[in-house]
Design goal:
This protein is an alpha/beta fold. It is built from 12 helices and 27 strands. The protein folds into 2 domains: about 220 residues, FAD/NAD(P)-binding domain (3-Layer(bba) Sandwich), CATH 3.50.50; about 160 residues, 3-Layer(bba) Sandwich (FAD/NAD(P)-binding domain). It has a 5-stranded parallel beta sheet with strand order 8-5-4-16-27. It has a 5-stranded parallel beta sheet with strand order 18-25-19-20-21. Strands 1-15-10-9 form a 4-stranded antiparallel beta sheet. It is about 25% helix and about 25% strand. It starts with a strand and ends with a helix. The chain is globular. Helix 9 links the parallel strand 19 and strand 20. The protein binds flavin-adenine dinucleotide and iron/sulfur cluster (2 copies). The site of flavin-adenine dinucleotide (FAD) has 39 residues, from helix 2, strand 5, helix 8, helix 9 and helix 12. The site of one iron/sulfur cluster has 13 residues, from helix 5 and helix 6.
């Protein structure tokens, strides 16, 4: 019996084009079920787990809900504490996951149902539509160049605009485009069709339908990562998303990125003017149990210092202010990184929460208090960057319900025992790793990805041994 079953490749008697194109399932099916693993989420955590397992001889299916893998790290400019280029560090890994003979990428996919037991789970996966037949698409990019519809880009956030057909990033893996149905003129109004006319291989398929398939696997690693706290709707005191020059840290990453929409120039979103005075506010939504999230997001002190330093590298005469409650820099080399920011880059740290941010003529005014001197502070700036809390990714609770695992009150997946078994869940055979378990940096995320891969191997080899002994 084939273990990968197309559940609805035919709808209403008509054959339906399956959006899944890449990832040869023959290889995946070629080994017994207890040598197959599913990794849900294709960020740095999931990629690390998948490559480790693949190198150990397991067949891995990586299920990613976006059209390409890489997760949030792909959006980062340079990374603390070493200031390495994020893309240069990550791209070899995304490419490896895409080319690894033992890793099958299933992008634009989400898990719908789970049956079975450790060692033999059956997972139903929903394959969403991309409106592009990736089996035909060569990734030439002609459609992207010709598309007349410009709008919000999932990837560039508020920093840049994108056509309605696009790849998530220039280095996307797989490097094939998809259509954003909400912005496509043909799919919303029935007018346009430019991409279909310009595609040299006829890959555009406006009638593509979603489909479902089943995969049998021995174990599952969940690595669905994080999102940014919805400060635009929940924090009117910081402009509620209505002041164009108030952005969040992830958008700042896109401004700082050499491959970003401004080629690394720090300009005001409102008028493209170079930013000469900039205010960073830490703990936006974090450590505020009364109104927002009670926990510390763990990376904001570090990435704010990184942003401040990278900004100063680009705008030498720029002035930087940072509002902070206290600095948490517990990783290896992190404290030195902070100290360098203060001493070498002349960044002014103000201890206290910023109370209010508002548009004031051409500039933005930030009001707060310096709790060390007891003085009220008011700064006029060109741009304000909010280090917004990290929260679990959308749909985490629904996925937990499907998998039979738990989320805590903040929505992060709950581990079996925080100290002794932080990767295991209450459901044997299902493991959690990376930011879906709690906010953390890249080093800790990759470490948990590798840890989860090891745990899977321990479980599956011990189940194999038990089965052999029983025979
Ligand atoms: C502004 C900012 C700057 C940062 N800078 C640094 C830095 O300089 N250095 C550093 O060490 N750390 C930094 N970090 C932290 C770093 O981004 C994270 O540690 C890292 O991205 C976590 O990786 P992850 O794979 O766990 O999650 P993610 O990167 O979020 O990846 C999760 C993946 O899972 C997918 N997914 C989600 N739900 C589902 C689902 N239901 N089904 C299938 N797939 C799903 C997502 O689409 C995504 O691709 C920064 C964070 C922020 C916010
Ligand atoms: S049909 Fe849609 S995606 Fe294609 S070119 Fe027109 S607007 Fe762009
Ligand atoms: S023009 Fe056709 S082949 Fe080229 S990237 Fe677009 S869909 Fe793919």
């Amino acid at each position: 019996m084939g273990e990968i079953v197309e559940l609805n490749s035919v709808i209403d008697g008509e054959p339906v084009t399956c959006a899944c194109a890449l990832g040869d399932l023959t290889e995946f099916e070629s080994v017994p079920v207890d040598r197959r693993v599913m990794v849900i989420g294709g960020g740095i955590t999931g990629i690390t787990a998948a490559i480790d397992l693949g190198n150990a001889g397991y067949q891995v299916m990586m299920v990613e809900r976006l059209p390409s893998v890489g997760g949030r790290m792909l959006q980062l400019s340079e990374t603390f504490p070493t200031l390495d280029c994020a893309q240069c560090t990550l791209t070899p890994r995304t490419v490896e996951s895409g080319q690894h003979p033992k890793v099958t990428l299933k992008t634009s996919c989400e898990v719908e149902e789970l049956k079975g037991e450790p060692g033999d789970f059956t997972v139903t996966v929903r394959q969403k539509v991309t409106y592009v037949d990736w089996n035909k698409c060569t990734g030439c990019g002609t459609c992207i160049q010709k598309c007349p519809s410009k709008g919000i880009s999932l990837f560039e956030r508020d920093a840049g605009r994108m056509t309605a057909i696009y790849t998530l990033s220039p280095q996307a893996v797989p490097n094939k485009p998809f259509i954003d149905a909400d912005r496509c003129r043909y799919l919303t109004r029935g007018k346009c069709g430019v991409c279909a006319k310009s595609c040299p291989v006829g890959a555009i398929d406006y009638n593509q339908q979603e489909s479902f398939f089943e995969a049998r696997v021995g174990a599952i690693i969940v690595a669905t990562g994080f999102d940014i706290y919805d400060w635009k709707n929940k924090m009117p005191e910081y402009g509620g998303g209505k002041i164009p020059d108030v952005i969040d840290g992830l958008t700042m990453e896109r401004y700082l990125s050499a491959s970003g929409p401004t080629a690394g120039k720090i300009v005001r979103p409102s008028d493209g003017k170079e930013v000469k005075e900039i205010v960073f506010i830490q703990c936006v939504g974090s450590r505020n149990p009364e109104l927002h999230k009670s926990y510390c997001s763990r990376v904001c002190c570090m990435y704010t210092a990184k942003h401040a330093r990278l900004y100063k590298h680009k705008v030498h005469d720029g002035q930087v202010y940072v509002f902070y409650i206290d600095i948490r820099s517990t990783g290896k080399g992190y404290e030195q990184f902070i100290q360098q920011s203060v001493s070498e880059e002349e960044i002014i740290y103000i201890r206290g929460r910023a109370a209010k941010v508002f548009q004031n003529g051409d500039q933005i005014t930030v009001q707060g208090a310096d709790t060390l001197s007891g003085r009220k502070i008011e700064i006029n700036a060109d741009m304000v960057v909010l280090a917004a809390a990290m929260v679990p990714n959308e749909g985490a609770q629904e996925l937990a319900d499907i998998l039979g695992i738990k989320c805590n009150d903040d929505g992060f997946f709950v581990e079996d025992n925080y100290k002794l078994s932080p990767i295991e869940t209450g459901h044997q055979g299902i493991y959690i790793a990376g930011c879906c378990q709690g906010s953390k940096d890249i080093a800790d995320s990759s470490a948990q990805g590798s840890a989860a891969a090891s745990k899977v191997q321990v479980l599956l080899s011990s189940l194999r041994r038990q089965n052999q002994e029983a025979v």
